[in-house]
């Protein structure tokens, strides 16, 4: 299957600082990427849909000024958690969509564990 | 979006075949059924996708009855490493606006 690289895999930061997470599609171009958040023992929650060259579409309840998304190329999307606080500690997962056999399939990154002290 | 219902958890033993059934009563004509596997602290991994009847790949089979209101993921001869959460997703995979939405998933525990 296609490979999606997410970096870093784990980050610890102080409260009030910003953290950037990168998501790259390594062997395919992704016009659309997605960012999810997952709390322990819970399912993935979609945060936003990122389209190359345009503004991201955020799900209800997700602050766009706090979670900045940039999708500057067909292979790279970034999520910046600005002024992080302990309640932002979570597992963040990106995914990229590609067309295979006429059908859309999403491939996911390995996730980023964010711990805000 | 079609809502899916799966068992919250299942237990099995090494070497057994495991069948996880997902209900999606209001599946739409253009909707596909996709299954993902997720290990703790990792992103979901694509397992299999199908539209009707049966689909098989090197890791699993997907059985879809004629009415498509349910689907069954079949894992042959599971091992301890198959312990994970399995998610069933339904959506129009042929459309450019498809956004996979995750339900609660099924936590499968494989015992020695």
Quick summary:
The complex is a heterodimer of chains A (117) and B (112). Chain A has 117 residues and is mainly beta. Chains A and B meet through β4, β5, β9 and β10 of A and β3 and β4 of B.
Please give a structural write-up.
The complex is a heterodimer of chains A (about 120) and B (about 110). Chain A contains no helices and eleven strands. Chain A is an all-beta fold and about 120 residues long. In chain A, the strands form two sheets. In chain A, strands 2, 4, 5, 6, 9, 10 and 11 form a seven-stranded mixed sheet that branches. Chain A has a four-stranded antiparallel sheet with strand order 1-3-8-7, with no helix packed on it. The radius of gyration of chain A is 14 Å and the shape is globular. By secondary structure, chain B is mostly beta strands. In chain B, β6 (about 60-65) and β7 form a beta hairpin. Chain B is globular. The chains are: A mainly beta (about 120), B mainly beta (about 110). The interface between A and B is medium-sized, with 27 and 23 residues.
């Amino acid at each position: 299957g296609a490979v999606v690289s997410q970096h870093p895999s784990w980050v610890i930061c102080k409260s009030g600082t910003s953290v950037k997470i990168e998501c790259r599609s390594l062997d395919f171009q992704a016009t659309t990427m997605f960012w999810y958040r997952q709390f322990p023992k819970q399912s993935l929650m979609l945060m936003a849909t990122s389209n190359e060259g345009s503004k991201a579409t955020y799900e209800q309840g997700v602050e766009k000024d706090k979670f900045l998304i940039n999708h500057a190329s067909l292979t790279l999307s970034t999520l910046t958690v600005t002024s992080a606080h302990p309640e932002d500690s979570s597992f963040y997962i990106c995914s990229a969509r590609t067309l295979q056999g006429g059908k859309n399939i999403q491939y996911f990154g390995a996730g980023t564990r964010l711990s805000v002290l | 979006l079609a809502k899916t219902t799966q068992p919250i958890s299942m237990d099995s033993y090494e070497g057994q075949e495991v069948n996880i059934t997902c209900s999606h009563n209001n599946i739409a004509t253009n909707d596909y059924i996709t299954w993902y596997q997720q290990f703790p602290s990792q992103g979901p991994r694509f397992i299999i996708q199908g539209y009707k009847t049966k689909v098989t790949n090197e890791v699993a089979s997907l059985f879809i009855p004629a009415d498509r209101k349910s689907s069954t993921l079949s894992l042959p001869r599971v091992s301890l490493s198959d312990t994970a959460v399995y998610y069933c997703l339904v959506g129009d995979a042929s459309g450019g606006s498809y956004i996979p939405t995750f339900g609660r998933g099924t936590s499968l525990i494989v015992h020695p």
